């Protein structure tokens, strides 16, 4: 389905979030919550591949254009409340899908709000990335966004220097990564300081956890996935074949088909 409208919603604290809606804007459908180093635009191909819901609404979380700033009072509660504003605006949403940090936000939101289904692709939780916080803080204070991209890929994800240089060689792609890294320190700090309850998605009728085949049992994403899974007693686990953390980039059609298959009847 194609994008039909973009909604701009005030979330208080002099900030706002933009929501890209695909399909019928008047029909409640699937709500997508991207994570760090990502925005709504990066999920357009997945949204177009989904047809099990009458609409797909992709949240552009605060801290990335065209949404508003994080603000000085930014916290995990800010993210959960922002998502609540989106859900109230869309009305009668039955399914949430979150990726990475966005998956953690979706799972936390459904501790407070009933939801028929939550789908979480490789959610992360503390101590994810905590060891890199000092270096991220220095880079953010200097507005050295290229350094932030290096830190997340080398120190957190564990990619090689050669891989990072290959990313840098794609000038447009590197510029996008630098732009998306601007809220990275604040988001990583929140992940590592916000309390995480012993149980997640307590008010979700059904929870589907998705992991890329390449990350099963491997740090950092596979190990964080297991930490989250232990907090959701009723979760079903699904594997995205031949993929890692970036299934929405490398295999959007396959991820879209998986989401269609997981649509609760």
TrEMBL record:
Domain AB hydrolase-1 span(s) in chain numbering: 30-255
GO molecular function: catalytic activity
InterPro entries, A to Z: AB_hydrolase_1, AB_hydrolase_fold
Record protein name field: AB hydrolase-1 domain-containing protein
Taxonomic source organism: Kutzneria albida DSM 43870
């Amino acid at each position: 389905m194609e994008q039909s409208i973009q909604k701009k919603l005030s979330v208080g604290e002099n900030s706002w979030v933009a929501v890209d809606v695909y399909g019928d804007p008047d029909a409640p459908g699937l709500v997508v919550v991207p994570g760090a180093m990502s925005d709504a635009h990066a999920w357009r191909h997945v949204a177009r591949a989904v047809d099990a819901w009458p609409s797909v609404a992709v949240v552009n979380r605060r801290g990335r254009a065209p949404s508003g700033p994080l603000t000085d009072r930014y916290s995990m509660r800010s993210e959960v409340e922002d998502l609540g504003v989106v859900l109230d605006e869309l009305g009668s949403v039955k399914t949430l899908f979150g990726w990475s940090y966005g998956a953690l936000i979706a799972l936390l939101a459904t501790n407070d709000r009933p939801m028929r289904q939550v789908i979480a692709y490789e959610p992360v939780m503390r101590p994810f990335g905590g060891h890199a916080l000092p270096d991220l803080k220095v880079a953010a204070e200097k507005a050295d966004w290229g350094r932030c991209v290096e830190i997340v890929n080398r120190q957190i994800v564990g990619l090689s220097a050669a891989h990072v240089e290959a990313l840098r060689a794609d000038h447009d792609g590197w510029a996008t990564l630098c732009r998306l890294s601007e809220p990275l320190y604040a988001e990583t700090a929140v992940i590592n300081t916000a309390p995480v309850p012993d149980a997640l998605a307590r008010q979700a009728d059904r929870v589907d956890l998705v992991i890329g085949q390449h990350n099963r049992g491997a740090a950092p994403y596979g190990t964080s996935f297991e930490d989250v899974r232990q907090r959701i007693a009723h979760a079903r686990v699904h594997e995205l074949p031949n993929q890692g953390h970036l299934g929405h980039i490398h295999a959007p059609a396959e991820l879209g088909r998986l989401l269609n298959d997981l649509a609760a009847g």
